Amino acid sequence: MSKVAYLDCPTGIAGDMFLGALVDAGVPLEYLIERLKSLGFEQEYQLNAQKVHRMGQIATKVSVNLASEHSSTHRHLPDIQRAIQNATLPPRARDWSLQVFQNLAIAEGAVHGISPEKVHFHEVGAVDAIVDIVGSCLGLDWLGIDCLYCSAFPTGGGRVKAAHGLLPVPVPAVLKLWETRNVPIYSNGIECELVTPTGAAIAVTLAQSFGSPPPLHLERIGLGAGSKELPIPNILRLWIGESGENARALPNNTETIAILETQIDDLNPQAIGYTFDALFEAGAVDVFTQAIGMKKSRPGILLTVLCPPNRIAACQTILFRETTTLGIRYRTQQRAILNRTLQAVDTPYGTVRVKVATQGETLLNIQPEYEDCATLARENNQPWRVVHRMALDAWHRRNEEP
């Protein structure tokens, strides 16, 4: 059994809503205040929580009240990273916080055409965003959450005032963050900002996947209130429980993978090999082709790319650049994976890395690395299969010794 949480976002998500849901679920406000002091910004804000009603439903509203003399203080990403690294935080909360800020800065930098380190404006640098992000990571760690899932997001609409003037909703940084994970979105008809960059960054960084809730034995619910009164209760719902027998596996057993596909019937086959190499360099996990019959009985190929969600854009760019395709389909799926380690073994011809796959304590597969075997085979003028067999024998001898 593992502790699982699910973010149900009927009216979107903001950093303070997530923080409110965590406090409502049992995270002590005093714990957050004490831990956040180690960031060194405690003179710039006050953190408080209160019960409020949204459309007749009670929820927890957490507010970060800024001291007037610090209300316009902004910081660069390196400043925030140093503060987090020097703070007294649990390791998981520290690492999660750094990841969230990195992703947020990358998104904001992409929108404005600058490097993440040069991002310097409200969405990343203001102390309320720092408190929301680090506080949320502290809360998840305090609750012992092993795996976080999240619903699809409502898009909202209209315009919102930002540091650079009026922006359309969803604001550009939120759209960029959604793009990195191929997040499912929909319109619920509410024309205002429903997802903030801070809220999007937390969810996109920490959620294992987006969509329906995972199977779990529900133990408690945390309700975090938003600031606005909306046509439906403006509440973020955090479901917490133990994963069931048929629950989705933990992050070390599953991962989200993107699948890109396109069919081609008018490209020199030699270009496919070059495209393969470029895709692997861009971060593709696997690339393969299948022979297909296309319109007018023309023979063609179906080119499929597997890659992490954050490499979709890079792989898509290569497919458009290196092939004659006019369109690419893509989707994300969960895939079960085995735990894998690389172990080096010595053979008479040199060292070969061996990939060892396990499930729990059970050994399921042993496979010498192809390129290592091929290199040694060429250098020693030996058949590849001989070097491959020697590597397997060496691994078994070493691991069967008492």
Describe the structure.
The structure is a single chain. With 402 residues, this protein is α+β, with helices and mostly antiparallel strands. It folds into three domains: 3-243, no CATH class; 254-336, Transcriptional regulatory protein pf0864 domain like (Alpha-Beta Plaits, 2-Layer Sandwich), CATH 3.30.70; 339-400, mk0293 like domain (Ubiquitin-like (UB roll), Roll), CATH 3.10.20.300. It is 36% helix and 32% strand. The chain contains twelve helices and 18 strands. Strands 9-4-1-11-10 form a five-stranded mixed beta sheet. Strands 13-14-12-15 form a four-stranded antiparallel beta sheet, covered by helices on one side. α9 packs antiparallel against α10. It starts with a strand and ends with a helix.
| Widest beta sheet: strand line-up | 9-4-1-11-10
Helix and strand succession? EHHEEHHHHEEEEHEHEEEEHEEHEEEEHH
Number of strands: 18
SS content category: alpha+beta
Instruction: Classify the beta-strand content into a percent band.
Output: 25-35%
User: Can you tell me the residue ranges where pLDDT is under 50 for at least 5 consecutive residues?
Assistant: 245-252
| Percent helix | 25-40%
> What is the radius of gyration computed over CA atoms, rounded to a whole number of angstroms?
25 Å
Provide a count of the helices: 12
Query: What best-fitting shape do the alpha-carbon axes yield?
Result: globular
Report the biggest beta sheet as strand number plus sense, adding barrel if it closes.
5 strands, mixed
Mean pLDDT: 88
CA(first)-CA(last) distance = 34 Å
Into how many domains do the coordinates divide? 3
GO molecular function: lyase activity; nickel cation binding
Keywords: Lyase, Nickel
Pfam family, one: Ni_insertion
Organism: Lusitaniella coriacea LEGE 07157
